[in-house]
Design brief:
Kinase-like protein, protein kinase activity, 6-stranded antiparallel beta sheet, alpha+beta
């Protein structure tokens, strides 16, 4: 026998006839009552979104049932004179405006959850449930304020809602874990393949841009040049030393990371003027540090950027890779200000890292390093008995990146590298207050909390990547 959790959303019967009758009857009356017309239009739009839903249809069905249960709406519509009198009352008008606003929120919520794939819903499950409950409370308040009679009792509907939410999310988590495991297993198999899988691009397919600009060359040595691939794809061609083993290692990792849109796309290898080059997607705005050096980045945009970077770090962790050099200079920005994690020169795979591979990074990137990594690389106390580089190190660096973006400057910029080493390993951190617009209190408190959770001295006490993702998702 089929249980609630196993019900297929597609088998839920359509409510179209019932709503269709409601819309048709209402449309004949609302010509002279514009406020009612707006409500009817919003309800119709919500239903259309539900009908076209790709995902989470069963969850959305609970909302549809709520809307269809407004029995007295039709009664008021049938008694146009009485309702017109009600709309003359200022308090009733205000309540009706709130009702319209709530329906708009419901429409946005239904539109969002019906587009979320399993993995995204799985990650946002707590927030979805919280938002659903808050919206339904707001909806009930509107019904009470407007004296609308509900066909079903609120308490009973809440019980039904809770059953649907619990069953839907539990099933989704189960399904997602299965599909995610399969996806990650597939990607891990790709990571274990040889460098022979790296795509070779015919140089004849590469052309210079029709319009030349100074910004077409990047890098300290201008080793990155802009070209056009297949006549329309803008690409970045980066030369490298073929004898450098770290570059070869980077190639092995890059060749397998085309699964994530938050990571700069790697097309393969080619040749320009006799030099071997790596081919990446061209990011029009340059790196994130260059962007904040040139112009102010709003806090709403900052929240979206940080959230996307977090998704990239989550993806890397799921396929067993540490980036190992997280900072704004290694985040490339598209023309639409979409961040792309880049520069995998120091990246390591989890299994390689367990062998305590020595990663001799330059001391000038110590500003973003976790204290345990600093101790291992740059102090006399560093020894082989210390734990390998871990996800907690990535979290610490990510916290420093958030600080960097919050202040829009390099952390510890007024200190020398050796002073930073002493400062950080003794448990001291950068100043972390008053860096946000005081009018945006929510973002201020949220970023302050996230940064402090990310750079705690004891690695085990730092926020984990899933909790970090959840907190950031609430800000976008």
């Amino acid at each position: 026998m089929t249980t609630k959790a196993e019900i297929d959303p597609e088998t839920i019967p359509s409510t179209k006839p019932e709503l269709g009758e409601f819309i048709e009857e209402a449309a004949n009356i609302t010509n002279n009552v514009p406020m009612l017309g707006v409500v009817i239009s919003l309800i119709n739009e919500i239903f259309k979104i539900y009908e076209n839903a790709k995902f989470n249809k069963r969850m959305s069905m609970s909302i549809i049932n709520r809307i269809l249960s407004v029995e007295t709406t039709i009664k008021f519509l049938k008694s146009q004179t009485k309702y017109s009198e009600n709309l003359q009352d200022l308090q009733h008008q205000e309540s009706f405006v709130k009702f319209q606003a709530t329906l708009r929120k419901i429409k946005m919520f239904v539109e969002k959850v019906t587009q979320l794939r399993k993995f995204e819903t799985f990650l946002c499950a707590t927030n979805i449930k919280k938002e659903f409950i808050e919206l339904m409370k707001e909806y009930e308040t509107c019904m009470t304020d407007l004296n609308f009679t509900m066909i079903i009792v609120f308490n009973e509907q809440r019980r039904i809602d809770n059953d649907i939410l619990t069953d839907t999310l539990v099933k989704m988590i189960k399904d997602t874990k299965t599909s995610l495991y399969q996806e990650i297993s597939h990607i891990k198999k790709k990571l274990e393949s040889t460098k022979d899988s790296i795509r070779q691009i015919d140089p004849i397919l590469l052309k210079e841009p029709s319009l030349s600009r100074r910004s077409d060359r990047r890098g300290k040595l201008e080793q990155i040049i802009k070209m056009v691939y297949k006549d329309f794809i803008e690409i970045a061609c980066k030369s490298f030393d073929t004898g450098d083993q770290r570059f070869r290692h980077e190639l092995l990792i890059l060749g397998k990371l085309d699964e994530c849109q938050c990571i700069v796309k790697f097309y393969g290898l080619s040749e320009i003027d006799g030099k071997e080059v790596m081919i990446f997607e061209w990011t029009e705005m340059g790196n994130l540090k260059e962007v904040y050096d040139k112009k102010y980045i709003s806090w709403n945009l900052t929240a979206r950027i940080v959230f996307q970077i977090c998704k990239a770090i989550m993806f890397l962790d799921s396929v067993g890779i540490f980036h190992n050099d997280i900072r704004c200079e290694n985040i490339m920005m598209s023309r639409f200000m979409v961040p792309k994690l880049a520069n995998f020169y120091f990246a390591v795979q989890h299994n390689d890292n367990e062998k305590s591979i020595a990663i001799n990074q330059p001391i000038n990137v110590v500003n973003w390093m976790a204290p345990e990594k600093i101790c291992k690389l740059f102090t006399e106390s560093g020894n082989s008995n210390q734990g390998p580089y871990s996800q907690k190190c990535e979290i610490f660096s990510f916290g420093m990146l958030i600080w960097e973006l919050a202040y829009q400057k390099i952390p510890y910029s007024n200190m020398k590298s050796n002073d930073i080493i002493i400062h950080v390993t003794k448990g001291s951190r950068e100043i972390c207050d008053n860096f946000l617009d005081p009018d945006n209190k929510v973002l201020y408190e949220s970023f302050l909390n996230i940064i402090q959770l990310a750079w705690r001295e004891v690695p085990e006490e730092r926020i984990n990547i899933n909790a970090l993702f959840s907190k950031l998702s609430e800000l976008v």
